[in-house]
Amino acid sequence: MSTLPPVRRSVLRMQAYRPPLGNRHGALRLDFNENTVGCSRRALDALRRLTRAEAAVYPEYERTRQRLARWFGVAAEQLVLTAGTDDALRLAIDVVVEPGSMVVLVEPTFAMYRFYAERAGARIVVLRYGAQMQFPEQPVLRALERRPRLFVLANPNNPTGTLVPRAVLRRILQAAPRTWVLVDEAYFEFSGVTVLPWIRRYPHLLVTRTFSKAFGLAGLRVGCLFAHRRAVELFRRAQSPYPVAAPALAAAEQAVRDRRFLREYLRAVQTGKQVLVAGLQRLRIPQFPSAANFVLVDFGRRADVVLQGLCRRGILLRDRRSDFGRVGFVRITVGTPAQMRRLVRALEALW
Ligand SMILES: Cc1ncc(COP(=O)(O)O)c(C=O)c1O
Questions:
Q1: How many angstroms separate the alpha carbon of residue 6 from the centre of ligand 1?
Q2: Which residue from 143, 211, 226, 333 has the least number of CB within 10 angstroms?
Q3: Closest CA to ligand 1's atom 3
Q4: What is the pLDDT of residue 119?
Q5: How is domain 41-257 classified at the CATH fold level?
Q6: Average per-residue pLDDT in the chain?
Q7: Ligand 1 pocket residues where CB is under 6 Å
């Protein structure tokens, strides 16, 4: 067989990113930080109402952009609709990172930051959370003195669950006016802490939000990238004309209108977290405080036995051992109190 024509060197150097999807159907899926009860019925009804004619034409974005902007408390000119956070990251990195540009990350964190930065051929500088999951503020500030092109941070962070206070984020933004600072707020609804209003003040701040987590629309792929209107102009210039499918737009619009669904789910997760945290404490399983809908725990040397035992009982958790180079780190998505009681019962039997 003849060889392929050349491709980008950065792609040849990359490892494929393959999350452990597959065989998840019917299980209690506590492995991807998704909404564990499903999306709002109003969002689902919006999908059902989609007409043949609407499916036949290219989607129009302006109305959804206006409505979502109102919900998020920004101007439509400060919002870019994307196919989830992944697409927002790809777009942002496409626009701001050139081959050889320096990108600063604090790991362990969401894998797609490194993925898109590597794909773009960036020079990636990695700092690390401490043993107690402390955010390395001083090393970050020192790295920013080298004027990287981009600094990316998840807040709260996945998988540590930690939250960087707004005062620290302000110091970072003020220290790095020549660096794009992307704050991924995928878990904002659970933490309640945001820097979104700051996009007016800091033209180098980018904020992402997603409909994949609290809103329960991960399967539809919809999210938003927020920035100063001058930056948004550039992102939209570089964006494909139809990045989000029409059903996803319709569902997102209804999802934000169903405030009751969101409120009740957030309350369920809050109580579910209390059930989980208390259960872990009773079993003396080390855990880290979390501001999100997941908790990082350390099963130590029994991680394999526990993960396999839970899997046999139809409960999936996310193995994060490779992130830490330490024995037993596992991430548990928080669900409803009943789901957490089921998990705790299973842990009691296995631990
Ligand atoms: C920090 C963080 N950002 C973004 C995402 C993915 O979001 P989306 O489904 O919108 O691409 C995840 C998913 O696990 C995440 O943990």
A1: 32
A2: 143
A3: 186
A4: 96
A5: Aspartate Aminotransferase; domain 2 (3.40.640)
A6: 96
A7: 33, 84-86, 110, 154, 158, 184, 186, 210, 212, 218, 223
